[in-house]
Specification:
Number of strands: 11
Helix content: 25-40%
Radius of gyration: 16 Å
Largest sheet: 7 strands, mixed
Strand content: 15-25%
Order of helices and strands: HHEHEEEEEEEHEEE
Strand order of the largest sheet: 3-2-1-6-9-10-11
Length: about 190
C-alpha cells in the first residue's frame, strides 16, 4: 500500500525545523534577546507570557528573568484546549510537562497581556507556523475575545518564509523579533 503524500503544511514544518536547527547552532540568541527586550519595553509592568524552550527554539528566559512585572509560562491542559499560564520566576520549581516543556510545580494562574510566542516559521505579514497542535491559536483567539493581547513571535531570521498554508483558525502575530531586529504588523 502506498504511503499518503504529506500535505503542504507538513512539508513547510519539516523545512522550517531544518532552517531553525541550522540557525540555532549559530549562537544568535544574544542579539535577538536584545531586540526582544527593546520590543517589550513599551509594555513594562504588564503580565508577560513567555515559554520554556524545547528542541531548537530560541531561548527567551534571560529576558523573562529581567522582566519588571509578573511572568508566566504556558501549561498544556489537553488536546484541543487553549493553554493555561502559570506564574514563573527564575527560582520557580519546575517539572516536566507536555511535549518536553517544563512547567511550574505550583499552579498559580495568570492571564498574560503580552505573549512571547515560539514558532517554526513566520512571514512578513505576521503569519505564524507552529507545531500543528493549535494551542497558541486557540489561546490567542479566546484571550483576544476578552481583552487586547499582544503576540510577539520570537525567532531566528532564518525562520522567515515567503508563505505557507494558513487555516481560518490561525491567529496573526502583532510583531516578530529576530537577531536582525523588530518588525511590527498592522
Amino acid at each position: 500500500m502506498a504511503q499518503p503524500m504529506p500535505d503542504a503544511k507538513t512539508m513547510a514544518r519539516k523545512a522550517a525545523f531544518a532552517r531553525r536547527k541550522t540557525a540555532h547552532a549559530t549562537g544568535l540568541d544574544g542579539p535577538a534577546r536584545t531586540h526582544l527586550s527593546k520590543a517589550l519595553a513599551r509594555f513594562a509592568g504588564r503580565t508577560l507570557g513567555g515559554y520554556m524552550p524545547i528542541r531548537t527554539e530560541i531561548d527567551p528566559r534571560p529576558v523573562m528573568s529581567a522582566w519588571d512585572g509578573p511572568v508566566c509560562v504556558p501549561v498544556v491542559l489537553g488536546k484541543g484546549k487553549p493553554l493555561a499560564f502559570h506564574r514563573w520566576s527564575p527560582e520557580t520549581e519546575m517539572i516536566p510537562g507536555a511535549f518536553g516543556a517544563a512547567v511550574p510545580v505550583d499552579a498559580i494562574p495568570l492571564a498574560p497581556e503580552i505573549l512571547i510566542v515560539p514558532l517554526l516559521a513566520f512571514t512578513l505579514r505576521g503569519d505564524r507556523l507552529g507545531y500543528g497542535g493549535g494551542f497558541y491559536d486557540r489561546t490567542l483567539e479566546r484571550a483576544r475575545a476578552d481583552r487586547p493581547v499582544t503576540a510577539i513571535g520570537f525567532a531566528y531570521s532564518a525562520q522567515q518564509a515567503d508563505m505557507f498554508p494558513r487555516d481560518s483558525t490561525d491567529q496573526p502575530l502583532d510583531a516578530v523579533v529576530t537577531e536582525n531586529g523588530i518588525r511590527w504588523f498592522g
